[in-house]
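Two entries, shown back to back:
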Amino acid sequence: MISRFFKKFYLHIVIWIILLFLPFITYLYQPDKIADFKIYSALSHLGNIIFLASSFYLHCYVVAPRYFFGRRKIFIALIAFGFFAYVLLNYAIVYFNPDGELAHLKKENVLFVRLVIGPGIIYSLCMITSSMIFLYDEQARQKELNKQIALEKTTAELTILKLQISPHFLFNTLNNIRWLIRKQSPDSEGTIVKLSEILRYILYEVDGPKVELFKEIDHMRNFIALQTLRLPIEGHVDLKIDRAVKNRMIPPLLFIHFVENAFKYGVDSKNIPYIQFQFVDIPGGIAFKSVNKILLYTESRLNEGIGLTNVKRRLQLLYPNRHDLSIQRTTDGYFEVTLRLMTDED
């Protein structure tokens, strides 16, 4: 941003210098005309350039920002005032010209052209260019502002989505602990320890936008351990981590919804559950897979709900065009979720 400003600053200086020396370029090709050089003409030209440059930047950075969008009458009045001031400047230059330019212009009947039409064209070009630069800068500023608003909205939305997931998870966990206490299970103390680790993770580890993958996996292990304790029938529950999986940085609580659903629909009181979770290293990222045998099946509950909607929304915000989520029910009665994340582009 700073380098862009200085580049534009230097460009403006170069343009005004070119305009300042433009009338004197002929001296480079016709050196004999230097003898006709008049200091008054040079000073009057310098006065014109100073007036136009002052009007240009005053219009671009003061008048247009204040009055262009809201007070058009004042905006037009100030431009008209500048035009009449420029006409008066040119009249003063002609009037005080020691060579009698005023009388010569009256004799040739071009006084109106010299004092009104010519300055009007030059002043109009100056104001149009200044307005175009103002509108371009304003458009760039609005784009930057819209980006900032979108970023703040996205951050706030992600925070809300994350908070919507965490209480739901905590509610289920507390229900599990209540079940163990009623059962007077000897595992109650260990369960409370795991719950404290879960709470510590949620309260202190997920404040930032990213956490280490292995911390998220440890959090999942604690959750799976709590869920496994309440299984009415012992079955197959497993979490596999491929050795090639790297400790990448990922958004927190991104996989826990699928773990919750696996236990929600993969456990009943009569059948042996089969639940498996797996993390696999893939080129440029990781893949998470959840498989559970469907023991409690409802089509709408498997494919809808605020939890899944939140996860999809977070993925769209955090990994646009860099994730692939596949959710399907197999013909042999299993529910499979595969989530691929391209994390290495972060």
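entry 2 starts here
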Amino acid sequence: MRGIKTLLVAGLFGLFSTGVSMAQDMNPEGIWQPANKESRYKITYCGDDNTKLCGLVHWIQPEHQNAENTSLLGTYLFSELPRRGENKWRGKITLRGHTIRGNVTQLSPDKLKVDACMLIWCEEVTLDKFSDL
């Protein structure tokens, strides 16, 4: 259950930058994974103006696959999250069949922070860049 919780919450992606030179190196597009390395997410720019953020479940470690989480492979956990600041997006995320609000913030070229709340339950996950697209 811990793996599926991390998998779903980690699908909430976004970005943040503190300097102009660093902002040039910051790119959310790529394949990202949580510290437990049980899943990977493909994050891309999307939308009419290509500034929104989309993320889908790209891969689940074979030994952690089950009927519940393999049905999520290839599905969007979020689509067209609007930019809410430099390297930061906020919008609706699908989590366990519920639509909730979440944030994605890029902390560095290789780190994303994803956070979301459902009622009183909140979670934060840090993702590491696995590869570029």
